[in-house]
Specification:
single chain, 28% helix, alpha+beta, 44% strand, eight-stranded mixed β-sheet, globular, 135 residues
Amino acid sequence: MAATFELEVATPDRLLVKDQVSEAQIPALNGYLGVLPEHAPLLSELGSGLLTYVIDGKTRSVVVSGGWVEVLQHSTRVLAARAERPDEIDLKRAQTSLDRAERRLKEAGDWDITRALRAAERARARVEAAAKSKE
């Protein structure tokens, strides 16, 4: 069995990760996917959350939202609508976005509930990642 596989994480604007990793946890639309070398092929819609991966025993992360993930036997590609490294996130701005999203969910109104839930999920992942990077 191979010890690593290639992980690529990209947005339409840039490539964030292209490295050999030993494992990855990827937020799919309906829950997290755990990926190890020689994983069975699959294609899934990407959710919002913290994508973590391990290189040489060290865990790293990227916040992703929307897009697709393709898992093949020796590689995994994440094509995200949005992605950023935790150290790129402004924690105060992310917290403001989370507060606004949660307020919208509590208020009665003509909000698109699915859109509001996804915004809250995305903001929550950004706050979590930014807070961890400040530790």
